[in-house]
Specification:
Strand content: 15-25%
Order of helices and strands: EEHEEHEHEHEHHHE
Structural class: alpha/beta
Shape: globular
Helix content: 40-55%
Low-confidence stretches: 5-15
Distance between the termini: 38 Å
Strand order of the largest sheet: 1-4-3-2-5-6-7-8
Length: about 270
């Protein structure tokens, strides 16, 4: 596990502060790209102290944020990430955003699913977030405050074909979220999930390329098909999901817990 402390991690912006976010210590997994990076920047702009974590240090170095490089599919990696982030941020985590994960581009139909690949999806998308949550909950209970937000997917409720590991892990993540809401409620700890639809990210690009290859089409054609599913005829941006995460982590969302919030631009799927 490697880490870096950046002076920019404590930058505040009084004019853009949000109740319950300014001055709060935020650990955000998968913060090196896509939705995670967009959310990390928003938290910093709104006055939070932010530490991001991902597997590879090379993708974290240029973020300008405090960071930890760790394998979040393992208990040791998650425990170390919490320990180092707590040191970097100068105290216990107030807000945990579990945003890391792997997609379904590598998956096959269920009867051809590789068991080890399925377990990798579970370890990364579900077990890792459990470990992170288990590590931060004692301090949140002690201080009687906490916000936990999980990035799931619309696939948690509407399964994608040839994506058994992804579908199952994201549905399980929503179950974990609801359990945390029940157990954390009396301690002022809220827990919610965002369920994004198609978002233009590197992970979604990989799935578009895999689908294009399987169907004899181009990635551009796949993205046009995805956009056609939405009333606005476009897919989402990482920033649109990030703003929802920010709201759920703020004091203004104190009455919302145990909810799966779709961020899907009106698309029913």
């Amino acid at each position: 596990c490697q880490s870096r402390k950046s002076p920019q991690a404590t930058v505040t912006s009084p004019t853009a502060s949000m109740p319950g976010v300014e001055g709060r210590r935020v650990l955000l997994s998968g913060g090196n790209r896509g939705i995670g990076m967009a959310a990390a920047k928003l938290f910093r702009e709104r006055g939070a102290k932010v530490c991001i974590v991902a597997r590879t240090e090379a993708t974290l170095k240029t973020s300008g944020l405090a960071y930890v490089a760790a394998d979040l599919s393992t208990r040791k990696g998650c425990s170390t990430a919490i320990k180092v982030a707590t040191e970097q941020l100068g105290g216990p985590i107030d807000i945990l955003v579990c945003n890391h994960g792997i997609g379904s581009a590598h998956e096959k139909p269920l009867h051809l699913t590789d068991i080890d690949e399925w377990k990798t999806s579970m370890d990364t998308n579900l077990i890792g977030p459990f470990y992170l949550t288990r590590e931060v909950m004692p301090s949140m209970v002690e201080q009687r405050y906490g916000r936990i937000v999980y990035t799931a997917s619309t696939a948690a409720t509407e399964a994608e074909p040839q994506a058994c590991g992804y579908n199952t892990s994201k549905a399980g993540l929503c179950g974990l979220m609801r359990s945390v809401a029940q157990d954390g409620g009396e301690y002022n700890v809220t827990s919610n999930a965002v369920l994004p639809g198609w978002v233009k990210t590197e992970m979604a690009d990989r799935s578009a390329k895999a689908e294009a290859e399987a169907r004899g089409r181009t990635p551009e054609q796949i993205w046009k098909e995805r956009a056609a599913l939405y009333p606005a005829k476009r897919v989402l941006t990482p920033e649109e999901v990030a703003h929802t995460i920010l709201f759920l982590a703020s004091e203004e969302s104190s009455g919302i817990s145990g909810e799966s919030i779709r961020v899907s631009g009106g698309c029913p799927w």
